[in-house]
Design a protein that fits this description.
This protein has eleven helices and 13 strands. By secondary structure, the chain is of the alpha/beta class.
Length: 397
């Protein structure tokens, strides 16, 4: 056998050439399938998404001069930790999210990206070493150019539900992500109110009390800024910091109170079994009291939240829409997605961008594997029983 291999290598017979060409084709085929399923597919799918068009307000004979803010909203990444996360599951899910995020940022070029909580899966109980490792992996996965801003909100998996959290967990999250229990950020005249919804228990705890006091202060800021006549604001607004005169967009992890997801529709809404389950206040959604306080204090024009892992659209007080953003992780959904928003000071338009469906990737691997097996068998039969030899033998007979 060794002599035949050396002879084959030296003489470069047609049979050996065919075998070499076939092996090269197999390698190219495998590399292409792997590269497409693990890299190119994210660009191919996300490239089909585009920013929604928002109407600009007309002021007299001129359109609103303020530029449009392009914002991305995603939620519930749930980076696996060292306790419950299997190494392959962790590797697979983080690669999927990293490629999706990097592809979306490169193709869509948003101005700002918001992650609506539950960044980590085990932040509520992870030790300092595990926490540092989770943070390191997060920064690697969600790296972004300097001109794109990334804002991260806190969720119950990051610091725990109200009954299991403490100031240590809250402060270490705040330190890493520059997040406070409630604050306003304004970009291109658009106001966003970021809220730690875990702190809206309403029981007077230290964290809850501080958050409510901050929200009342933010409410005064927004109300004073909305007053058209700045020369007659009154004493209550004389020493209040001003924000752009725009109704805010409320961002938080927990959704406002609703009975269930039974009224939610769409291909990425909850399953029929999940829709039949009633929500538990302060666990699946905020309490009715906390929800009404937020609506009354802030008077938002739009609300975006996460937590449920499924899509939903709810109208509060018959005028304020709330969008539940589905999970960004394939561990929680077969069809993850994120929200794209074109925002101005007076209007907004939303669109949803779906990521590759995991079943599609699996089917592609199965089909490619079956095709590879068939081609290998055909080639092996051809090499073992060359057609030319069979024809020559037939002629000799």
């Amino acid at each position: 056998m060794a002599v035949q291999m050396v002879k084959c290598g030296r003489l470069k017979s047609p049979r050996c050439k065919k075998r070499t060409v076939f092996l090269l084709k197999i390698v190219c085929f495998v590399v292409f399938v792997f590269a497409f399923c693990e890299f190119l597919i994210y660009y191919a799918v996300i490239a089909q998404c585009s920013w929604p068009v928002v109407k600009l307000a007309v002021q007299g004979d001129r359109k609103e001069s303020a530029s449009v803010l392009k914002a991305m909203f995603l939620s519930d990444t749930h980076l696996l930790g060292e306790i419950t996360g299997h190494w392959f599951d962790k590797l697979r899910r983080e690669w999927q999210m990293e490629r999706s995020f990097q592809s979306a940022v490169w193709l869509l070029q948003p101005d700002i990206v918001f992650i609506l909580g539950d960044v980590f899966d085990e932040g509520k109980w992870s030790f300092p070493e595990a926490w540092e490792d989770d943070v390191r992996r997060f920064h690697k996965m969600f790296r972004h150019p300097a001109h794109i801003e990334l804002v991260v909100l806190v969720g119950n998996h990051d610091i725990g539900f109200h009954y299991e959290t403490n100031l240590y967990k809250l402060h270490r999250f705040e330190k890493v992500f520059n997040f406070s229990s409630a604050k306003i950020i304004s970009r291109k005249g658009v106001n966003f109110v970021l809220v730690n919804s875990v702190a809206l228990e309403g029981d007077g705890c230290l964290m809850c009390k501080a958050t409510e006091e901050t929200l009342i202060h933010l409410s005064r800021m927004l109300n004073c800024s909305r007053k058209s006549d700045q020369n007659h604001l009154g004493k209550e607004c004389s020493n209040v910091e001003q924000t752009p005169a725009s109704a805010p967009i409320l961002l938080q992890h927990f959704p406002l109170y609703r009975r269930s997801d039974s009224e939610c529709t769409g291909e990425d809404s909850a399953t029929l079994e999940e829709k039949a389950v009633l929500f538990k206040e302060k666990y699946d959604a905020l309490s009715q009291e906390a929800s009404q306080k937020l609506l009354w204090w802030l008077r938002p024009r739009l609300i975006l939240s996460g937590h449920t892992h499924s899509a939903c659209e709810v109208l509060h007080n018959k005028m304020v829409p709330e969008i539940s953003v589905p999970s960004f992780s394939w561990r929680n959904r077969n069809n993850p997605s994120f929200i794209m928003a074109s925002l101005t000071t007076t209007d907004f338009t939303l669109a949803k961008c779906f990521l590759p469906v995991e079943d599609t990737v699996i089917y592609m691997y199965i089909v490619a594997g079956a095709l590879l097996l068939v081609l290998t068998m055909v080639c092996c039969l051809t090499l073992l029983f060359p057609i030319g030899q069979l024809v020559n033998k037939h002629k000799q007979i």
